[in-house]
Amino acid sequence: MSKDEVVALLGRPSSRMQHPEDETRSAWQERWHWGDTLGTLATNAAMPDQPPPPRLWTVWFDSKGKVLRVEAPDMAREAGRDTPWLPPTIPPR
Fold first, then answer.
1. CA dist 72 to 12, 26, 57, 85, 87, Å?
2. Which residues, other chains included, contact 46 with Cβ-Cβ below 8 Å and sequence gap of 6+?
3. Do 89 and 79 meet the contact criterion of CB atoms below 8 Å apart?
4. How far is CA 69 from CA 25, 28, 38, 47, 66, in A?
5. How far apart are CA 7 and CA 17, in angstroms?
6. How far apart are CA 91 and CA 58, in angstroms?
7. 88: buried, middle or exposed (CB in 10 Å: 19+, 13-18, 0-12)?
8. For residue 14, which phi and psi values (nearest 5 degrees)?
9. Is residue 43 packed enough to be buried (19+ CB in 10 Å), middle (13-18) or exposed (0-12)?
10. Partners of 61 in beta bridges
């Protein structure tokens, strides 16, 4: 599937990321996200080598612009994350 076909199915992505130049082990050259927030955009800008958050639709492309992989949001995995700035919840008595 080409980039144009992906845009026709999912619409324009909320962000796009190029493969880091210093990393040569991966086959992907570009990755597109749908569903970004300010937090995910800031994280991608500051730490581009991090994997995408599980709340995003993500599509990876090879050097020819063809889809390598598609990942749908995984809200169950996202819900299991702890927030470091909040104390753990205590069940009522």
1. 16, 20, 5, 27, 30
2. none
3. no
4. 16, 9, 24, 21, 9
5. 15
6. 35
7. exposed
8. -80, -20
9. middle
10. 30, 67
Locus of tokens 């889809």: 67
Residue reference for tokens 């962000």: 15
pTM of the entire structure?
0.70
Is the Cα torsion angle 43, 49, 54, 60 positive or negative in sign? positive
Average pLDDT by consecutive 10-residue portion of the chain (93 residues)? 92 87 75 88 81 87 92 72 61 69
Rounded CA-CA distance 57/10 in Å is 9
Residues making up the chain, counted from first to last = 93
